[in-house]
Amino acid sequence: MTQPPDALALAAAIKAGERSAATVVDATLADIATRNPSLNCFTEVVAERARSQAQSIDRAIASGHDPGPLAGVPFAVKNLFDIEGITTSAGAKLNGGNAPAVQDATAIARLEQAGAVLVGTLNMDEYAYGFVTINAHYGTTPNPHDPSRMAGGSSGGSAAAVAAGLVPFALGSDTNGSIRVPASLCGVYGLKPTYGRLSRAGAFLFSSSLDHVGPMARTLTDLATVYDTMQGPDPADPVCTQQPPDPVAPVLTQGIEGLRLAQLGGHFERGMEPLVRDVLTEVLQSLGISERVEFPETHRARAAAYIITACEGSQLHLERLRQSPMEFDPATRDRFLAGAMIPAAWYVQAQRLRRWYRDRVREIFQHYDVLIAPTTPCVAPPLDQTTIDIDGDSYPLRPHLGFYTQPLSFIGLPVISVPIHRPGQMPVGIQLIAAPYQEAKLFRVAASLESGRVSR
């Protein structure tokens, strides 16, 4: 696959006058036009806007101004972020009749303020309800490493676009694993920050008490820079934290000395393929980890996450389900309908368990800084695979791609999925997990893996 320069190298070349932002954007748009018909990552390209933004960057540099750390770097967003003048589809034909967005999502605005150039929107599961990016309306996004396999979802277009080298970084959203699952299957970095750390203003939500937005990138330095750029309070999102930004780029060279690390056992050791287990063992050995810790009642936490997701999602779309059920993607419609029939008492009980589980996990993080677990039980499955074996039993594949991610989103923990590539094999993702607002510790461990050439 084509691997263009990473974001920071590209920005440095543009600011040094070695390349212009306009030529970089033109090359990116030409690459998308040539390769997207087979990759099916992009659902819309904003060429005129991108060229205008690139020209502004070049004028700023010519006049001696610094456009920002991401000067002239192309990026794209999952098709649920508002873009001024464009209807936000969220992967659904039903949204086609909605009015165009009147302003950009906060995340897009902050990235453009740092000099980045938006080039388009990316494919996803309808309304972010899925782990496969097989969309009845916008088609399937295959895995760039092997087009007969899944890219993962629901931010599959974002992960595939980065893995294929169409853009250096992209934005996705994560409710139960929708950044980390495709990042793992496509072999790129994916960050699900602490719940509320990044503004969701202007993003089409799915399950509000579980939704996060976050970046995906090929390199850790790019991931850190993009994350730092998007931090900060936002009055437009009532969930967004009032805590000041905590930049992570400066900690990438600090090493892991003093950090308390452990493997996350129990539920997070079940059902993984041999290759995933081999990679996990390599990572644990590289970090010198011998301790293992378990979260209590993880299987119940995962069940509660299902209930909350289904209830909140179905209530959001209840009127559309009543008026136009046949306009939904069948893969999402049936689950929304089932969610609409869940008794309210179940939802209340699930929220009670959520608080109990959160408190028990916080007690564990009094003793550890970063925990390690696989991102998915398997590498990218074939597109026609429908089941997965876990401990000798067969389960439906689609929901179980989130087997290891869902219990972590449930309580809003920050997680990085680190890509591990072995020659001739599909990539494997490893999750680094910390207590809320401890993203800097995750980046220190990820940097250690990168410098030790474990992640590559």
Topology:
Elements: H1 7-15, H2 21-39, E1 42-45, H3 47-62, E2 74-78, H4 106-113, E3 117-122, E4 134-135, E5 139-140, E6 142-143, E7 146-150, H5 156-163, E8 169-174, H6 180-186, E9 189-192, E10 212-217, H7 220-230, E11 261-264, H8 274-286, E12 292-293, H9 298-316, H10 318-323, H11 330-340, H12 344-364, E13 370-374, E14 387-390, E15 393-396, H13 397-400, H14 406-409, E16 415-420, E17 428-434, H15 439-451
Parallel strand pairs: 2-3, 2-8, 11-12, 11-13
Antiparallel strand pairs: 1-3, 4-5, 6-7, 8-10, 9-10, 9-16, 13-17, 14-15, 16-17
Helix pairs in contact: 2-3, 9-11, 9-12
Architecture overview:
The chain is an alpha+beta fold and 456 residues long. The protein is built from 15 helices and 17 strands. The protein has helices at 7-15, 21-39, 47-62, 106-113, 156-163, 180-186, 220-230, 274-286, 298-316, 318-323, 330-340, 344-364, 397-400, 406-409, 439-451, and strands at 42-45, 74-78, 117-122, 134-135, 139-140, 142-143, 146-150, 169-174, 189-192, 212-217, 261-264, 292-293, 370-374, 387-390, 393-396, 415-420, 428-434. The strands form 4 sheets. An 11-stranded mixed β-sheet has the order 1-3-2-8-10-9-16-17-13-11-12, sandwiched between helices. A hairpin with a 3-residue loop joins strand 4 and strand 5. Helix 2 (21-39) packs antiparallel against helix 3 (47-62), helix 9 (298-316) packs across helix 11 (330-340) and helix 9 (298-316) packs across helix 12. The radius of gyration is 21 Å and the shape is globular.
